[in-house]
Amino acid sequence: MTRKRRRLYMVGGGMLILATATALILTAFSDNIVLFCSPTDIQNKATCAKADIRLGGLVEEESLDRGADGVTVSFRVTDLSNSIPVTYKGILPDLFREGQGVVTEGTVNAEGVFVAREVLAKHDENYIPKEVSDALKASGNWHEETKDAKDY
Amino acid sequence: MILDYFANPARFLRLANAVLPWCVSATVILLGVGLYMALFVAPADYQQGESVRIMYVHVPAAWMAMFVYTNIAIASALSLIWRHPLADLAASASAPIGAAFTFLALVTGSLWGKPMWGTWWVWDARLTSVLILFFLYLGHMAITWAFDNPARGAKSAAVLALVGFVNVPIIKFSVDWWNTLHQPASVFRAGGPTIHPDMLWPLLIMGLGYSLFYITLLLLRIKSELLGARLRTLDSLRQDAA
């Protein structure tokens, strides 16, 4: 075996072992690497049964209620199988609306309501010119749920 | 093998000198056209409005952050295994450029995150792994120059670059493996891009412009290192003669 070949095997083997170790570590800690818990996770997962958590999901359609004082809002966060009521007092990000993905940070109170300290809006992978979305909405061909499968 | 062909520094310098003017003009044209299209021609997004224009600076910077690190890892393997004489130079010349791209991606992402997400920063898997990439670049630069013997510095940096390479697939797939605040990929994804062609074209032109900018800087930096080495040799020869 030449020295070059030996070095190749050492580097290759080292990388393989490192990749395996990293994969094992990441798999073991995957519950801690996720940013948020879904409403279903909160019921099922031990790592989501803490007092202080991040709750993530979609803002349920027709659940948004802006309070009379103008700063308190309540809505439900859903993962389409379970949902949790959320209240929040503060400024919402630009992308916040019904049907949008959100991540909220806070605690669940005695009534089972999630009291959020912070509400963050998620953006999805779709980039669509405003003119195109306006035209689709005008012609009635706009479907929130089929944005992924659209043809231009 | 083509890589052996360029193991000769004089040959490499000849090639670099021939290619550099073309690289510079292509960079200027692509970045000029790309920025004009991104800032003035491309349409506003239906959700993000005009803030979408940050994407044309942010996304190519993030691509380059991973691309340059991959190049450093390849150069490090070439150096450690095949002892290619220019590989260490290519790696040490790439590191500050890659660090700058990573910094740009982090800063522009943060500027976009505040109005869109509602926060400058969140410790999700994507943002954290890119921050680690930035520290890997800084570590690579520090280690390269941490030894009196430059060859030892280059060797240690090469080992660090290869070890840190596990982070690159983690960055790419972080948004698929774990839930994150950062959105999933829009361009390099199974099932094709989810970005309208009117927005995709300026982005791709910017991406090409960034790549050529990197190649230009890389050639310039390697060239100046080679010329510097030649000067140092001449200098010591003159001192020996005196």
Number of β-strand runs of chain A: 6
Name the poorly predicted regions of chain B.
Answer: none
Give the biggest beta sheet of chain B.
none
What is the count of DSSP helices of chain B, taking H or I runs of 4+ residues? 8
Number of strands of chain B: 0
Give keywords.
heterodimer, A: 152 residues, alpha+beta, OB fold (Dihydrolipoamide Acetyltransferase, E2P), 4 helices, 26% strand, B: 242 residues, mainly alpha, globular
Account of the protein in words:
- Chain A has 2 domains: 1-33; 34-121, OB fold (Dihydrolipoamide Acetyltransferase, E2P), CATH 2.40.50.
- Chain A is built from 4 helices and 6 strands; from the N terminus they run αααββββββα.
- Chain A has helices spanning 3-28, 30-33, 39-44, 130-139; strands spanning 52-59, 65-66, 72-78, 83-89, 101-108, 114-121.
- In chain A, strands 1-3-4-6-5 form a 5-stranded mixed β-barrel.
- In chain A, a hairpin with a 5-residue loop joins strand 5 (101-108) and strand 6.
- The radius of gyration of chain A is 22 Å and the shape is flat.
- With 242 residues, chain B is mostly helical.
- Chain B has a domain at 54-183.
- Helices cover 77% and strands 0% of the residues of chain B.
- Chain B contains 8 helices and no strands.
- Chains A and B meet through helix 1, strand 6 and helix 4 of A and helix 3 and helix 8 of B.
Compact overview of the structure:
The complex is a heterodimer of chains A (152) and B (242). With 152 residues, chain A is an alpha+beta fold. Chain A has 2 domains: 1-33; 34-121, OB fold (Dihydrolipoamide Acetyltransferase, E2P) (Beta Barrel).
